[in-house]
Amino acid sequence: MKRALLAALLLALPAFAHKASDSYLALSVEGKSVTAQWDLALRDLAEPMALDANGDGKITWGELQARQAEIAAWALAHLTISTEGSPCAPGPVALAVDAHSDGTYAVLRFALQCAAEPAALGIHYSLLFDSDALHRGLLRLTAGGETRTAVFAPATASQSFELRGQLASFVRAGAVQVFSSAGHLLFLLALLVPCVLRRQKGGWAWAARFPPALADAARVVAAFAVAHSITLSMAAFGFAHPPQHLVEAGIALSVAVAALDNLLPVIGARRWVVAFAFGLLHGFGFARSLLDGGLPRAGLLQALSIFNLGIELAVLAVAIVFLEGAFALRAAPQRLSLAAPGRPHRP
Predict the structure, then answer these.
(1) Are 292 and 156 in contact (CB under 8 A)?
(2) 58 and 7, same structural domain?
(3) Quick check: 228 and 187 in contact, CB under 8 A?
(4) Are residues 11 and 259 in contact, defined by beta-carbon separation less than 8 angstroms?
(5) Which among 152, 123, 121 is positioned nearest to 135, based on CA atoms?
(6) Are 111 and 189 found together in one domain?
(7) What domain range is 182 assigned to?
(8) How far apart are CA 308 and CA 295, in angstroms?
(9) Number of structural domains, the chain?
(10) pTM above the 0.85 mark?
(11) Phi, psi for residue 261 in degrees, rounded to 5
């Protein structure tokens, strides 16, 4: 089981070492009207829309503009915004282009008219999910002076938003950032494994008691939390913007280092140092969707604090579930072919 876990950690690296496919949807609700800006990566539009008409490997403004109607129709076929079960009707779509940290995006701007002023907004998003399960739609919703964020994935394609209650929405968005990224989860789990199960001469051995294992895990989680909070804040306030491809590569490297340490233990009790060092990179990873999707300038510190709270709650939940599950398995080591402290390993 241990070898299978570590193999899974390493084999998963290629899946998230490259930039994920994202789109950015910004909605603003005013009375019965919802104004929208939807940023779609040209690389995601190129194949379904056949944008490169002359086949020269480049997409020009003329080629993009020539397919404006088809792009708008295709995109809106994968987005439904409704209130009280009644879809809001989209109006004409204007087209522009913009540069994000990972390339050029087509920008669709349009307005939707709802039958009544919405108290809640239902959104169904299904863009690219049939061909790319890793695609994410990053939402920024502004209503009543409050701004909230959310992430659309195949499992969360339909979501409903009360147009009040910013706290819960930002906490949820922070938690989703953790659970929707394999890199963050695998790094954390790889660092937590040695808290309860360590490689020694002759095989693997379980931690002797729960309190020391808990203290070890607490140091790792705390170091990770402090580190990613620092760089998340730095990015949000504009103090640092490292290239995204370097951040993604660093996150992949962090998983490899943490996983390999399970096989060839060299870090030992200094895993909290590794958690802190690589946690700085993970903080920039958490910040990416907020920066590209748009973080509210008004009340930025409060929004960041609430979002970070969601991240910390998710990380804490992962650690607690892992430790509880590991010690539950420890009660039956013979079924796992692992030796608990004081018990000889039996082939």
Answers:
(1) no
(2) no
(3) no
(4) no
(5) 152
(6) no
(7) 2-16+178-333
(8) 13
(9) 2
(10) no
(11) -65, -25
User: Is there a domain that residue 286 lies in?
Assistant: yes
Of 130, 122, 111, nearest to 33 by C-alpha is: 111
| Token pair belonging to 237 | 């306030």
42 shares a domain with 11: no
Are the C-beta atoms of 135 and 128 separated by less than 8 Å? yes
In this prediction, the residues of the chain whose per-residue pLDDT falls under 70 are 1-20, 145, 164-170, 202, 207-208, 289-300, 302, 331-347
In a domain, 60, yes or no: yes
Angle of helix 244-263 versus helix 2-11 axis, rounded to 10:
160
Distance CA 51, CA 75 (A): 14
- How is residue 295 written in tokens? 């973080």
**Residues 60 and 206 both lie in one domain:** no
H or E segment to which residue 282 belongs: helix 271-293
For residue 278, is it left (φ>0), alpha (ψ between -120 and 50) or beta? alpha
In a domain, 261, yes or no: yes
User: Each residue of 251-302: pLDDT tens digit?
Assistant: 999 999 998 988 888 887 788 999 999 999 998 888 876 666 555 555 567 6
